[in-house]
């Protein structure tokens, strides 16, 4: 018997990973899916200047950690939407579409403590 090709092994691994998520809240759509998408977008657009998760990250950051932002008393969905659409001197002008912005907002709000 021969070993599976690297391509077939990758396909099998991907299939196993997808099978593990079937029935999970992420695959079912809804708020958890948007939070995961928000984390993905934040990783791509924001992680060079902000700590985006609950844990620490290596590096120097010029912006506040998302956990700190989430736990500010003034942080609400509408407040984050206004902030993300406004120009800020130390922040690049990012132009996420409404769906992307809502996903990032859902992710940030999911970090809020009890």
Can you describe this structure?
- The chain has 114 residues and is an all-alpha fold.
- The chain has a single domain, classed as Orthogonal Bundle (Cytochrome Bc1 Complex, Chain D, domain 2).
- It contains 6 helices and no strands.
- Helix 3 crosses helix 6 and helix 5 packs across helix 6.
- The chain is globular and about 35 Å long.
- About 22% of the residues have low confidence.
- This is Cytochrome c domain-containing protein.
- InterPro entries: Cyt_c-like_dom, Cyt_c-like_dom_sf.
Topology diagram in text:
Layout: H1 6-21, H2 25-28, H3 31-45, H4 66-70, H5 77-85, H6 98-110
Helix pairs in contact: 3-6, 5-6
Count of the domains: 1
CATH overall fold name: Cytochrome Bc1 Complex, Chain D, domain 2
Number of strands: 0
Q: Write down the CATH class.
A: Mainly Alpha
The helix-strand sequence is HHHHHH
How far apart, in Å, are the first and last alpha carbons? 56 Å
Quote the beta fraction.
under 5%
* Helicity range: 40-55%
Q: Major sheet, described briefly? A: none
Count up the helices. Answer: 6
CATH architecture: Orthogonal Bundle
Low-confidence stretches: 4-28
Alpha-carbon Rg, integer: 18 Å
Shape: globular
Structural class: mainly alpha
- The residue-averaged pLDDT reads 78
